[in-house]
Design a protein that fits this description.
21% strand; 6-stranded mixed β-sheet; alpha+beta; 16 helices; 23 strands; globular
Length: 498
């Protein structure tokens, strides 16, 4: 029996899974949490040593849970939060805490990048907008506000890459995480010298960007002694969290997509070649498949909007809300919900966007509000598909594999299929990016010949939901009505008022 390990360096904690390579069965899981620091409004940081400590503890627990089967571990794969900047000195030691993906201190740096390059220059050099979450603006902020710290910086890596350094002593990154820095060209799959020249940074700050299934190195003797795993066990570069999650769902071929409904919402379409939205409203990144790419839209409050509705208005469990929503007719009695509770990224990129219920009347019932919330979140996700359709109809996935909260409700699965007018599938894998990292570990170790073959072997579709033609036609009109409301409300006092 071959066993594959996957680690995911998340924001709340580091998760690990042990997967049987013959059928994808999860043999063991482990989790270690660590703190988040917010030293000032809009700032979000974490200590990289917490990542390393958590990785060693999780690997040790997985090894213990496997018992004698620990000898069957073939490789360790990695995944982690995108964009978060870990700054290293010439000895490979951290010079400050990591600045995270959710940190918003870099607005002025993003404006400066955009002024320098313009939309056309951004599309040519990095294929993405300059957003606060990305890594490059964080470097510019440190250069401007912490010059003594910046003077020590010799390399910049992502959280999972720092864990790889801890485990193997080897420094590097890979293309999917590099894509989220704004310093990388995901079409050419190399660091963007034009972007770096425009902002005055040296390309030597960034390590070699491998492919996701490439081996970084082997576990060191110290790590072996600390965890019980065999010295020299290959550590595979892995992928950024969304890219790894896509692999874990089997989204590894053109025509397949991923819908992830967590606090935020993600719609991702795997493509064989990037087709860039001229307005850069979609993210364009390298996939974890060699030569593959993906387009992605992100809404900031998906499951978060449902949680707000549960806690503030409904005050009932999720299952009751979705069951109740199923008794309301499509269209929710004329009520439309805008889920912009945290502003919005795709398609509006508007931090001041705000949520709303529109169309309330004396006949509106609780069940209508519940359905309107689910429909509004689903419309927000469908906005990303509309953007893809506008760039190239061929980008739009024929099958969308769903994970997160929306996957657990039969009513919501059908709603997703109807609004998307596409088949929605649920898979056997529920461990997210950590599972995808284990799949990549299998490729790097030679257990599988390709990421696509590995995903076919380890990921099974357990349910398919087809759209109802009549409902799909109805929701095309309802979605258009939803889309009209952002522009109608944008300039009202309610938007952006604190």
């Amino acid at each position: 029996m071959d066993v594959l390990l996957g680690l995911d360096v998340g924001t709340s904690g580091l998760k690990g899974v042990a997967v049987r390579a013959s059928d994808g069965r999860v043999l063991a899981t482990a989790l270690r949490e660590y703190p988040l620091y917010t030293p000032a409004p809009g700032h979000a940081e974490q200590d990289g040593e917490d990542f390393s400590r958590a990785a060693l503890e999780v690997l040790g627990e997985l090894a213990s849970r496997l018992g004698d089967d620990v000898r069957a571990v073939r490789a360790v794969g990695l995944s982690g939060q995108m964009h978060s900047a870990m700054l290293l000195d010439e000895k490979g030691e951290l010079v400050r805490r990591a600045i995270l993906w959710c940190d918003t201190r870099t607005t002025e740096e993003c404006r400066a990048i955009t002024r320098t390059l313009g939309l056309e220059g951004l599309a040519r050099t990095a294929r993405n907008l300059a957003l606060e979450g990305f890594t490059l603006p964080k470097l510019l902020w440190v250069r401007a506000h912490e010059p003594a710290v910046f003077a020590k910086v010799r390399r910049v890596v992502m959280p999972k890459d720092y864990v790889a350094l801890t485990l193997t002593g080897a420094l590097g990154t890979e293309v999917s995480d590099a894509s989220g820095t704004l310093a990388f060209d995901p079409v050419e799959r190399r660091w963007s010298h034009a972007m770096l020249a425009a902002v005055g940074l040296d390309a030597s700050l960034f390590p070699e960007a491998r492919e996701s299934q490439d081996v970084v190195g082997g576990l060191t003797r110290a790590v072996s002694e600390a965890t019980g795993l065999r010295e020299g066990t290959p550590v595979v570069a892995g992928a950024a969290d969304n890219a790894a999650a896509a692999v874990g769902l089997g989204v590894v071929r053109a025509g397949r997509g991923m819908v992830s409904i967590g606090t935020s919402g993600v719609v991702l379409a795997h493509t064989d070649a990037l087709r860039i939205d001229p307005e850069l409203r979609l993210h364009s990144f390298c996939a974890a498949v060699r030569g593959g790419t993906y387009a992605m839209g992100v809404m900031l409050s998906a499951g978060g909007a449902l949680r707000w509705y549960r806690d503030v208005i409904a005050k009932r469990p999720y299952e009751v809300i979705t069951d109740e929503a199923g008794t309301s007719p499509r269209g929710a009695g004329g009520v439309i919900f805008l889920p912009y509770l945290m502003g919005e990224r795709t398609p509006h990129n508007d931090a001041n966007a705000r949520g709303a219920f529109v169309g309330l009347s004396a006949s509106t019932e609780s069940r209508d509000l519940s359905r309107a919330v689910l429909e509004g979140i689903t419309f927000g996700l469908a906005d990303s598909l509309d953007l893809m359709r506008g760039v190239d109809e061929g980008m739009v996935p024929r099958e969308l594999r769903v994970t997160g909260g929306g996957a657990r409700s039969a009513m919501w699965r059908q709603l997703l299929a109807d609004v998307f007018d596409a088949e929605v599938a649920v898979t056997s894998s529920t461990e997210g990016a950590a599972f995808g990292a284990a799949v990549l570990a299998g490729v790097g170790a030679g257990v599988f010949t390709s990421v696509a073959d590995a995903a076919d072997a380890l990921v099974r579709v357990t349910e398919r939901v087809s759209p109802d033609a009549e409902s799909a036609a109805y929701y095309r009109g309802a979605h258009a009505a939803y889309q009209s409301l952002y522009g109608a409300l944008k300039n009202t006092a309610a938007f952006g008022r604190r």
